[in-house]
Every structure is written in structure tokens, then in C-alpha cells.
Amino acid sequence: MERGKERNTVASERESKRLQKARSFDRKALGAIYDDFHQPIYSYIYRRVGDVEVARDLTADVFRRFLQAIHNKTGPNQNLRAWLYRVAHNIVVDHYRRRQNQQHYPLEENIICVGDDPIQAAELNLKTEKVRAALLCLTPDQQQVVALKFLEGMSNKEVAEITGKPVGAVKSLQHRALASLQRQLVQAGEEVPA
């Protein structure tokens, strides 16, 4: 437990120093921030929009907004990760508003690798489609919490920072989302562990 706190403290201190240098447009610090956060932000956005090109464009927009915020002196003072994910979330919401579509959370298309057994592959494909359909039934807030918590591996506290909601609200959204997913999957004929 103590080691985890030490790692988080060291990471926070390193992030804080990089942010300070980035505010002075230090190229090395900006490059390190980009290197550290580009892939996680891209993955988060890709899972939300399900389109490689759109995800690339929206990810670029996140970092453009970061640079713009630093230039305008409105960028984050601490917890850069939460700030970037919040911007990414807002950009995805704006993307769907522009498209006037329901926000959704597609699963990655190429996660199925079952070897040479076509029956297993077909069963897994069917289960994936059922999970995808169940995720579409969640509210956008529930989708975001599920994405950050289970696909990005974040803690409730981190999810709360990113969403701007109290930890209790995040736990409640998570609980309701999981209950809804369970109901949807049971209705679809899937066995769900208790």
C-alpha cells in the first residue's frame, strides 16, 4: 500500500515539474507529456467513437487544446491526466452533438482471437455483440464511468476527477451501470456471474 502511494507521489511530482516546464513551452517537457498521454487518450477516444480517423482527429484536438490552454495561461495547474481525459470526454460529447447521434461506446473490433475454432470465434462474436448492445443501453454518464473504470483501469477517485463528479456519484453510476448491464445480458440469454 505504501509503495503505491510513493509511486503516485513520485509520478505527481514528475508531472508537476513537466507542467511547470511546459508552461514555458519547453519542447522536451511538451514532448514527454505527449509521449506519456497520447496513446491512452487515443485509446479512450477510439473506444468511444469506434473510428480510427475520427479518433486521430479528436486526439489531436485534445493536444491542440492543451497547447492553447497553456498559451492562454488557463491550462491545468495539477493533475494533467484528469485534465486531458476531461477535455477528451468533452471533445467526444461535442463530436456526437455535431453528428446528432446517440453517444455510444463501441468495443474494439479486433479483440477476438480464438485460434482455429470457428465455433468458438462465432460464440465470442455473438457475446461481444450482446455486450455492445447492452453498453448502448447505458446513459452517457454510465458509459463514461464504465469506460474509465474498467477499460482504462482508473480508480474511483481518478474517475471522479475526470468527470467532475463526487466519488460517491461515481460509485453510484458504476453500480447502476453494472446492474443494467447484468439485466440486459440476462435478457439476451447470457449467463452472468453473480
Summarize the topology.
Elements: H1 2-22, H2 27-49, H3 52-71, H4 80-99, H5 118-136, H6 140-151, H7 156-163, H8 167-187
Helix pairs in contact: 1-2, 2-3, 2-4, 3-4, 4-7, 5-8, 6-8, 7-8
Give me some keywords for this one.
194 residues; mainly alpha; Rna Polymerase Sigma Factor, Chain: A; Arc Repressor Mutant, subunit A; 2 domains; 8 helices; elongated
Quickly describe the structure.
By secondary structure, the protein is mainly alpha-helical.
Top-tier CATH class of the largest domain:
Mainly Alpha
Following the backbone from N to C, one meets helices and strands in this order, namely HHHHHHHH
What CATH calls the topology of the largest domain is Rna Polymerase Sigma Factor, Chain: A
Helical coverage, percent range:
over 70%
User: How many angstroms does the end-to-end distance come to?
Assistant: 28 Å
CATH architecture designation of the largest domain: Orthogonal Bundle
As residue ranges, the low-confidence spans are 107-112
Given the structure, what is the number of helices?
8
| Shape, per Cα inertia axes | elongated
Strand content: under 5%
Radius of gyration: 19 Å
Round the mean pLDDT to the nearest integer and report it: 81
Number of strands: 0
CATH superfamily of the largest domain: RNA polymerase sigma factor, region 2, helix turn helix motif
Overall structural class, as computed from helix and strand content, comes to mainly alpha
